[in-house]
Design brief:
Elements lengths: L21 H15 L9 H7 L7 E8 L5 E9 L2 E5 L2 E5 L5 E9 L3 E15 L2 E9 L2 E4 L4 E7 L9 E10 L9 E11 L2
Parallel strand pairs: 4-11
Antiparallel strand pairs: 1-2, 3-5, 4-5, 5-9, 6-7, 6-8, 6-10, 10-11
Length: about 200
């Protein structure tokens, strides 16, 4: 299409952070014009943008500033926290050959980060008239980004053995940079021993 045949008129729209509908309007209008063979006016209304626009991940920030007696800014601090979502899969498989339980889940961050996850797997077991807590802990390093990725860790007992049945698992951020918001997940899991 010759440049002299293109007419663009910009109008203020709904605000956004990142990619918005207005970024696609010119390209969409050009494609529609080529298909119909006629001039096209493409206008997104505010409700169109709220209904069809891409939404960015949630964001948490901490902003502090200081001013002197004259109103001049003397200090400014801005911290943009990374938000994290952690899940734990409800099924834990135990390898009968070595007794190791495989605890798995997913993790996603609002931006790329690397830190450790503190993982624990607990199972209450009745021994005689007592209930004992058989447990294992690990702290693997994980790397996460905006797309959920799977994490997996073999949970090794120092004493006792896993039994088929219910247990509970926890996962939480550990030794993360100060700008990474603390996150955790906890829940009931089912332990099953796989025999080959």
């Amino acid at each position: 299409m010759p440049a002299e045949k293109i007419q663009v008129r910009y109008q203020e729209g709904a605000s956004n952070y990142g990619h918005g509908c207005q970024d696609d309007a010119a390209q969409a209008a050009a494609i529609m014009s080529q298909i119909t063979g006629k001039p096209v006016r493409l206008q997104f209304m505010r409700w169109d943008e709220h209904g069809w626009d891409n939404y960015g991940p949630a964001q948490m920030t901490d902003i502090r500033a200081g001013i002197d007696a004259s109103g001049n800014i003397t200090a400014f601090e801005f911290t943009d926290f990374t938000n994290i979502t952690i899940t734990i899969d409800p099924n834990v498989k135990v390898d009968a050959a070595n007794g190791r339980a495989l605890l798995t889940g997913t993790i996603a961050c609002s931006r790329d980060e690397t830190f450790k996850l503190a993982l624990e797997l607990h199972q209450d077991q009745k021994v005689g008239k007592q209930v004992i807590d058989v447990h294992a802990a690990a702290a693997p390093q994980v790397t996460c980004g905006t797309t959920p990725t799977t994490w997996a860790q073999k949970m090794i007992l120092t004493e006792g053995a896993w039994l088929n049945g219910s247990a509970r698992a926890t996962a939480q951020t550990y030794q993360a940079p100060e700008w990474v918001a603390q996150a955790s997940a906890a829940g009931a899991v089912k332990v099953s021993i796989s025999r080959k």
